[in-house]
Amino acid sequence: MATQAQPSGSRTSGDRPDISYSIVAGLYGGVLLVPLVALVLARVVTEAAVLYVCSLVVVACLIVSVGWAVSRIRGLAVELGRRDAAWLLGVLPFGWAGGLFGATSLGLSLPAIAVPLAILGTGGGALFGIVLVSMSRTRHADAALERATPSAEWEARYPRRWRHVALVVAFGLLAVGVVQFVARSLLGLDTGWGFYYLFYFWVPLVVPANPRTFRVTTAGLVVERPLQRGFRPWSAFTGYELTDDALVIRSAAWWRPAHRCDTADIEDRDSVVAALNECLPRR
After folding, report:
1. DSSP string covering 235-257, please?
2. How do the domains of the chain map onto residue ranges?
3. 161-202: per-residue pLDDT in tens?
4. E strand or H helix at 131
5. From CA 239, how far away is CA 184, in angstroms rounded?
6. What are the beta bridge partners of residue 220?
7. Residue 50 to residue 47: CA distance in whole angstroms
8. Angle at 273 between CA 267 and CA 274, to 5 degrees
9. Which CATH class is domain 150-277?
10. Which helix (H) or strand (E) holds 42?
């Protein structure tokens, strides 16, 4: 399906991050540092109510400071979205869960608030980190596509076989988490830490099931998900393959997964193939 629409919200790489981006960056920094702030204050403040108020004040100051600092750096959002390592922002908060598990395994004495703080730092930090990465990718795509001309667009899910595998894995992980939760809560059995992270088991269930919008442009390939618009130049791909079941666009870097589409979802396959032929070799 042809399209002439330009992406909305375009911004150049030299612009400062907008208010919404700065707010999310501030929340990410504040939530990520909540466990550290609370644990440090717990050493000097013994009263629970005073500790709670002091932690809120310090974290609020951190959120405002980080957000303000980010808003002053020109091109930060676009440059971050261009980097492959940006995904580390969503992984870094899991250091709190790893630290808690390591300390418990070594038999170290931890304060009573260590577990909820680790859960907050891991869950909240990962959530804001994923949102921040998505916003960065979208702003990078908008900047790269300011002068690009689109030639074809289609919407497609992952191929059916990949969706089935993802569903089986997701439900398997969910079943393990439920069994651990029931065994620990009702039977009093020590099943480890797995049930604390039940929330994360739904991620592989949601991602493959959602359709993505692909757009072929003169600058590169655009892949839009519900919360993110990604962009890669054509030099980042080696070619594409088309079968009765799947359209596969191969990445040049071995660590990047190929883009796979269910051909049954593509309405005008001929126009998509014609647009890809102008940019990539058929393998």
Report:
1. GGEEEEEE-SSEEEEEESSTTSP
2. 19-144, 150-277
3. 888 887 787 777 777 777 777 777 777 666 555 555 555 555
4. helix 114-144
5. 50
6. 233
7. 5
8. 115
9. mainly beta
10. helix 19-42
